Amino acid sequence: MSKIKNNLKKIRENNKTSKQFIEAIKDHNLNQIKTIPKGDLHNHALLGMRFSQFNKYFNGQVKPPPAKMNGLKEMANYLDNETIKFINSKNEIEDLLKIAIEEAINDGVILLEASLDASFISFYDNHKEYFSMIQELKESYSQKLYFRPELGAARVLPEDKWNEWVLPSIKSGAFYSIDLYDLESVNNIELYSKYYEIARENGLKIKAHVGEFCNPDQIIETIKILKPDAIQHGIQAIKSQEAIELIKNKNITLNICPTSNIKLGAIEKFEKHPAPKLFEEGINITINTDDLMLFDSSVSEEYLKLYKKDLFTAEELNTIRINSLK
């Protein structure tokens, strides 16, 4: 059993650690910030390392991502053409997972919810082998980090693959949560709802990507149909008081990734990011990496950026840090 998992409450309530974090933020001391326990609850595992690490692993064959991308379609195009094509075996999946977990540990992340795409199961000879690998990975890092594997399912995934890949994974006991991601314009929520109900019955935490680009009506629809515990992004809720109140009333956490939002063009610049207003509204938010390989900003760096841009006080960022460990 993970020592960290058992001591999360003590870690959250450690006043000395909070004081150290606040002082490190105020001093702009990134190295010190990295030593403070924190969570990363919005992390796509195989992209959870710096581009230099990913490229080194594939012998320098990978073209770097654009500094800025015009939305999710351009990001998907880059991933399809410059990263996914290199991942062709279970060994590569496992190696990259380990690199991502170690990257998180080096940043002081002790609670990591990182998504493994549903398709990864297809690289294994049988389901048992895949699920055993995940359990072994959790156990091998359990003294340094509480790894909560997340089942990632793309909106564009055909229904036969939901049955072939997603359902066995939901029922395996290997995953802590389920997340729906990919292009927000693909919005067949009714299709996903039956699988989400099965996930809920199997004790999984319910998540969905929504509200990075789409209008608040889609956030409201997603909440009403999928009943998520957390929303990945959700920043467009700021445009609708109805969405804000629904998120608060349902006690939904928004797992926000500021640099991702900027580099994809969802938000024009840091100074206009809605995270502070969402926080002021009383919504529980966390700050996360999304895809470290694409956006080149760790959780510690995100905290420091938000402070330097005068979007949050150091004390507010500490509250958000503690939220990420709940």
Write a compact overview of the structure shown:
Its cofactor is Zn(2+). This protein has helices at 3-6, 8-12, 15-26, 30-33, 51-57, 71-82, 90-106, 127-140, 159-170, 189-201, 216-226, 241-249, 258-263, 275-280, 292-295, 299-308, 314-323, and strands at residues 38-44, 109-117, 146-147, 150-154, 177-181, 205-210, 230-233, 253-256, 285-287.
Summarize the helices and strands and which ones pair or pack.
Blueprint: H1 3-6, H2 8-12, H3 15-26, H4 30-33, E1 38-44, H5 51-57, H6 71-82, H7 90-106, E2 109-117, H8 127-140, E3 146-147, E4 150-154, H9 159-170, E5 177-181, H10 189-201, E6 205-210, H11 216-226, E7 230-233, H12 241-249, E8 253-256, H13 258-263, H14 275-280, E9 285-287, H15 292-295, H16 299-308, H17 314-323
Parallel strand pairs: 1-2, 2-3, 2-4, 4-5, 5-6, 6-7, 7-8, 8-9
Structural overview:
The protein has 326 residues and is an alpha/beta fold. It has one domain (3-323): Metal-dependent hydrolases (TIM Barrel), CATH 3.20.20.140. It has 17 helices and nine strands. The protein has helices spanning 3-6, 8-12, 15-26, 30-33, 51-57, 71-82, 90-106, 127-140, 159-170, 189-201, 216-226, 241-249, 258-263, 275-280, 292-295, 299-308, 314-323, and strands spanning 38-44, 109-117, 146-147, 150-154, 177-181, 205-210, 230-233, 253-256, 285-287. Strands 1, 2, 3, 4, 5, 6, 7, 8 and 9 form a nine-stranded parallel beta sheet that branches. Helix 9 (159-170) links the parallel strand 4 and strand 5. Helix 3 packs across helix 17 (314-323), helix 10 (189-201) crosses helix 11 (216-226) and helix 11 (216-226) packs parallel to helix 12 (241-249). The longest helix has 17 residues, at 90-106. The radius of gyration is 19 Å and the shape is globular. The model has no long low-confidence stretch (mean pLDDT 96).
